[in-house]
Amino acid sequence: QVQLVESGGGLVQAGGSLRLSCAASGRTFIISTMAWFRQAPGKEREIVATSTWSGGSTLYADSVKGRFTISRDNAKNTVHLQMNSLKPEDTAVYYCAAARIGAVDYLYWGQGTQVTVSS
Fold first, then answer.
1. Per-residue confidence of the chain (119 residues) as pLDDT tens digits?
2. Which helix (H) or strand (E) holds 4?
3. 17, 88 contact by CB (below 8 A)
4. Which residues, in sequence order, are CB contacts of 3 under 8 Å at separation 6+?
5. 115 closest CA partner among 97, 80, 79, 88
6. Torsion of CA 3, 8, 10, 12, to 10 degrees
7. How many other C-beta atoms are found inside a 10 Å radius of the C-beta of residue 34?
8. Three-state DSSP state, 74
């Protein structure tokens, strides 16, 4: 019902920046919240940032506050994650996810994009 495609990952040195994008298609009108998650090798998946579909309300994990910004391009149905001052511990596969209106769980997931931060 909703398809998500991430892009923008890559290799960057510590202190650098990357911008991830998540293009949503399909029945986007059922989306209430978008989120970025990440999973590092050997670690559990963790939520990084969330945004209402309207973009009016955002939340961040403490580990990325002040460095990452989630935003939405309304015209393109795309959600971005601007990542600045990257650290080696930010290295992970990043996933975007969408929750539908009335649901708590994130039902729709992208394929993931690798972010590697070298020291």
1. 999 999 999 999 999 999 999 999 999 999 999 999 999 999 999 999 999 988 789 999 999 999 999 999 888 899 999 999 999 999 999 999 999 998 889 999 999 999 999 99
2. strand 2-7
3. no
4. 24, 25, 26, 108
5. 88
6. -140
7. 26
8. helix
Distances (CA, A) of 106 to 15, 47, 56, 116: 31, 11, 19, 25
Q: Residue 115 phi/psi, 5° resolution?
A: -120, 125
Single-letter code of the amino acid located at 44: E
What is the rounded radius of gyration, in angstroms, for the C-alpha atoms of the chain?
A: 13
Distance of alpha carbon 117 from alpha carbon 34, whole angstroms: 24
